[in-house]
Amino acid sequence: MQDMDAVFRALGDPARRRLLDRLNEHNGLTLTELCEGMGMTRQSVTKHLAVLEAAGLVATLRRGREKQHYLNAAPINDIADRWITHYDRARAAALADLKTALEETDPMGTDTTTTFVYSTYIKATPERVWQGLTDPAFTTRYWRHPSAGGVSMSSTWEKGATYDVAYDNGDLNISNPEQVVLESDPYRRLAYTWHTYTPEWADAHGVDAADAAAWAAEPRSKVAFDIEETGPGVVKLTVVHDGFAPGSALLSGVSTGWPAVLASLKTLLETGSALPSA
Amino acid sequence: MTSFTYTTYIESTPEQVWRGLTDPAYTVRYWRHAKAGGKTFPSDWKKGSTWDLVHADVGLVVHDPAQVVLESDPFRRLAYTWHTFTPEWARCVGLPEADAAAWRAEPRSRVAFDIEDARRGVVRLTVVHEGFAPGSVVLPAISEGWPAVLSSLKTLLETGTPLSTS
Where residue B57 sits, what CATH number does that domain have? Predict the structure, then answer.
């Protein structure tokens, strides 16, 4: 339940109400898009958005170049429930419908993607790329997280075998019989189910426990790596990470993570050093 | 799907990445076609200016006033409309004329490059190629092409040599 005073204060400004109207017409706008036609400085719009965010009326999601802003109708619906129900049941029903419609609307538009696919070409041998994907001596160098450190996966990498995940920093080790190697065709194709999002994982990565719990509740995804020689000394590595439910919150996170991890793997294999870390 | 998006991280500077995308001395080395050879894009890269597509190896120039620079914010953002699929171009790259006609019938797409500092010494390059109609046949082709071109740009900027073509 949002601070009702903060919500009323946020709604009490015409410019802020206009920003909410814009998002109601077209959700997911960036700051640049919101500034268009507002007749005020970018700085002013930023200040107004901060007030709206603090009141819980706007949520942001970083995707691509700029953050996208989304209308959260919950506080408005709460006002409706508290103030309008007493006065006008029909209007309350309409606002509840708006809330439901906004909650059901996919903030990404009509995106029903449940798969992340990415290809990169690397000057390396298939054996080296396979090693890069599986050998802790490699993975800890390029597959890194700012707080948790470098990733190591231990497994025999045979089809049907399980794998554990450990991180440099601390004693975190994630072991689960559902973390399984699905396919293993050395130097050509490797596939495994994705790791588990335990509370300890969330802690080590600075991820909100509630977010991690939501991710853990999603169906377990899987990733497949295809390694294909496309020319002399050049390999095409294709990563397909799928098995997500439509609207998956986790898919957005992994879609941002993979290009960074794979770019660093490529740099490591081609130059001998991974990309500079954060 | 009516667009293609690709993000990569390159150990370089925004100025170098911009140069990589626009300077003929760079593009000819990594932005290559198996049959038609390396590309250059003569243009002053100012907003509103046109740009040409040149494959010098095969004597091909694709010029069309509809090939326009939409946005130009040096070292940060560049956007332009895509080139025309002329019969000469189709011949040089080995695309059957019937296919080229189908490609020409589609609305002209556009590409935008965003160059951002990701962290010290690392640039994030995001490419969004959009403006395709549902069912576009051009989209799958460019979706296949971009990862190869951008991988080669990254290798060129990080090692001094582009990826060798197949």
Answer: 3.30.530.20
Query: Cβ separation of A270 and B155 shorter than 8 Å?
Result: yes
Specify if B164 maps to a domain. Answer: no
What pLDDT shows up at residue A88? Answer: 57
Q: pLDDT tens across B37-86, in order?
A: 999 999 999 999 999 999 999 999 999 999 999 999 999 999 999 999 99
> CB contact, 8 Å: A12 with chain B?
no
How large is the ipTM? Answer: 0.95
User: How many domains does chain B divide into?
Assistant: 1
Give residue A105's pLDDT: 44
Q: Which residues of B touch A (CB under 8 A)?
A: 5-11, 114, 116, 118-122, 126, 128, 147-148, 151-152, 154-155, 158-159, 163-166
Is residue A106's pLDDT more than 70? Answer: no
Contact B164 A234 (CB under 8 A): yes
Q: State the Cα–Cα distance between residues A167 and A45, nearest whole angstrom.
A: 41
Q: Using CA atoms, how far apart are residues B136 and A105, in angstroms rounded to an integer? A: 26
Q: Determine contact, residues A89/A233, Cβ cutoff 8 Å.
A: no
Residues spanned by the domain of B9: 3-159
pLDDT digits (tens, 9 = 90+) for A136-162: 999 999 999 988 999 999 999 999 999
With respect to residue B166, please indicate whether it lies within any of the assigned structural domains.
Answer: no
Question: What is the set of domains in chain A, with CATH numbers?
Answer: 4-104 (1.10.10.10), 116-271 (3.30.530.20)
Neighbours of A263 (CB within 10 A): 26
Distance from CA of A120 to the nearest CA of B (A): 6
- Cβ of A120 within 8 Å of Cβ of B8? The answer is yes
Nearest of A24, A105, A95 to residue A57 by alpha carbon: A24
- Give per-residue pLDDT as tens, A176-211: 999 999 999 999 999 999 999 999 999 889 888 888
For chain A, positions 54-73, list CB contacts with chain B under 8 A. Answer: 64-65
Strands (E), B19-156: 32-33, 37-38, 53-55, 60-62, 69-73, 77-81, 110-119, 122-130
Please state, rounded to an integer, the average pLDDT across all residues of chain B.
96
Query: Which residues pair with residue B60 across a beta bridge?
Result: B55
- Mean pLDDT for A110-127 is 89
The answer to whether residues A102 and A71 touch, using CB atoms and an 8 Å cutoff, is yes
